[in-house]
Amino acid sequence: MNAEEAAARRHREKMAKRKLVQDAEVASKGVASKGLLMVHTGAGKGKSTAAFGLALRALGAGWKVGVVQFGKGAWQTGERRVLEKLGAEEGLVVWHTLGEGFTWETQDRARDEAAARRAWDKARELMADPAIRLLVLDELNIALRYEHLPLDEVVAALKTRRDDLHVVVTGRNAKPELIASADLVTEMTLVKHHFAAGVKAREGIEF
Predict the structure, then answer these.
(1) How is the chain classified by DSSP, letter by letter?
(2) How many Å separate Cα 26 from the centre of its chain?
(3) 189 in a structural domain
(4) With contact defined as beta carbons under 8 Å apart, do 156 and 14 qualify?
(5) Could you list the residue range(s) of the whole structural domain that residue 46 is in?
(6) Disulfide-capable partner of 52 in 22, 79, 106, 109 (CB 3.0 to 4.6 Å)?
(7) Dihedral of CA 160/163/167/172: which sign?
């Protein structure tokens, strides 16, 4: 056996052992139907982008998807256009942008609280719709950070949602109580961002 053949054999043996470990780990997981509560947080870019990528995957699986956007104004974004277009034929996308812009733009706490309440009421409505399999609550973390909604109410509703509903919550500064209740938490870490170099948000990249 030459050196190349020996290296190939060692690789096969190594991967065979790895497969045994991986297969055993997968086999040990017994919960297959539980709806997941997922949180995308952190200072880095990509929280909403990842959530909408998940929505695209869900559409590909034939799921009905709901989206409620907190805080963001009602501008048209690329992800909304494409997801609504993809889901239009079978009515698989329900999208509600119910914010009035970022809180530093409105500068009116009462308006911000009222907008957050409208968005949360719509989220509760979609949570109760048995046809929806995935619900994206975009920037809900911001509404909770600024106390535009009662944290206890939101966490309790998410914890007691129906068993087959997957929910993904986005936004910076996720509350510890929400993180503790979640099944999956991803923190986007900021390493470098073009905005710091004077590059404005651009269509197709940021929206």
Answers:
(1) --HHHHHHHHHHHHHHHHHHHHHHHHHT----SPPPEEEEESSSS-HHHHHHHHHHHHHHTT-EEEEEESS--S---HHHHHHHHHHHTTT-EEEEE---S-HHHH--HHHHHHHHHHHHHHHHHHHT-TTEEEEEEETHHHHHHTTSS-HHHHHHHHHTS-TT-EEEEE-SS--HHHHHH-SEEEEPPPS--GGGGTPPP-TTTT-
(2) 24
(3) yes
(4) no
(5) 34-197
(6) 79
(7) positive
Do 25 and 117 reside in the same domain of the chain? no
CA distance 72 to 133: 23
Same domain for 41 and 4: no
Question: Roughly what angle, to the nearest 10 degrees, separates helices 78-88 and 47-60?
Answer: 10
Tokens of 107: 């500068």
Residues 23 and 44 in one domain: no
Residues 148-171 have pLDDT tens digits of 999 999 999 999 999 999 999 999
Residue 102's pLDDT is: 53
Q: Are residues 18 and 59 in the same domain?
A: no
- Tokens at 116, concatenated: 């957050």
Q: What is the pLDDT of residue 75?
A: 66
Q: How far apart are CA 154 and CA 157, in angstroms?
A: 5
What is the tally of structural domains in the chain? 2
Pick out the chain residues at pLDDT < 70: 29-32, 72-75, 99-107
